[in-house]
Design a protein that fits this description.
Spore Coat Polysaccharide Biosynthesis Protein SpsA, Chain A, seven-stranded mixed β-sheet, about 35% helix
Length: about 220
């Protein structure tokens, strides 16, 4: 029987360091639109959902309608992102696997995401992610059972804000796989959008390679 895969893109508008980052345009296309479009390219059958704070659902809905993006939106806890992922997964039929995607990575690699799904299916574990690939290109995959255990047992603020923190802090309870990426970054290049100053680097890559993926680097 094939595994049910739930891909959750976490995103928010409120941020002291970069307000409304999700809606910022990168070469004319909004950040969150770029992230969604990249994840839509994943070849494994999946359910793709945008996970946002419940008080921001209307803003995201209107924005994505304006940009002709059709994706289910789940509104959850504004700061307890572990809570948000758990209840979103429950609403979408408690899938076997959950892929965590951050909404501030416009150069996420759908190819690398598919390879990680293959690895996770071939190497049963609670959580897996590639290491040594360029920051901002990868994702995490974890089992629903691991998510549920984390949801029930995590209490520390960092464990609630960061979905997989409880798993990493309690490796004696979970089987974590961290294979080396088939596409190792030879430099310290970072392709995540954390600050407004990161935009020029990302636009330089996309100007030179509009359909960039990590397998083309």
């Amino acid at each position: 029987m094939s595994k049910k895969i739930f891909i959750g893109i976490q995103s928010r508008l409120f941020s002291s360091r970069f307000p409304n980052k999700s809606f910022v345009h990168i070469l004319g296309i909004p950040l969150i639109v770029r992230v969604i479009q990249r994840m839509q390219q994943i070849k494994h059958p999946h359910t793709l959902v945008l996970l946002v704070p419940k008080n921001e659902v209307s803003q995201y809905t209107q924005f994505l309608i304006q940009h002709h993006i059709d994706i289910p939106i789940f509104g959850g806890h504004p700061t307890n992102v572990l809570h948000r992922y758990y209840h979103a997964a429950k609403q979408f039929d408690s899938p076997d696997l959950i892929m965590r995607v951050t909404g501030d990575n416009p150069l996420l690699s759908p190819h690398l995401a598919d390879l990680l799904i293959d690895y996770h299916l071939e190497n049963p574990c609670d959580l897996s992610h590639f290491v040594k690939n360029t920051v901002g290109t990868g994702v995490e995959i974890f089992n629903f059972n691991a998510l549920e255990k984390s949801y029930k047992e995590a209490t520390a603020p960092d464990e609630l804000e960061h979905v997989t923190q409880y798993i990493y802090k309690h490796r004696e309870l979970f089987h974590v796989e961290e294979p080396i990426s088939p596409y190792i970054s030879e430099t310290c290049c970072k392709l995540s959008l954390d600050y407004i100053e990161d935009i020029p680097t990302i636009e330089t890559v996309l100007t030179k390679y509009p359909d960039w993926d990590i397998c083309h680097q």
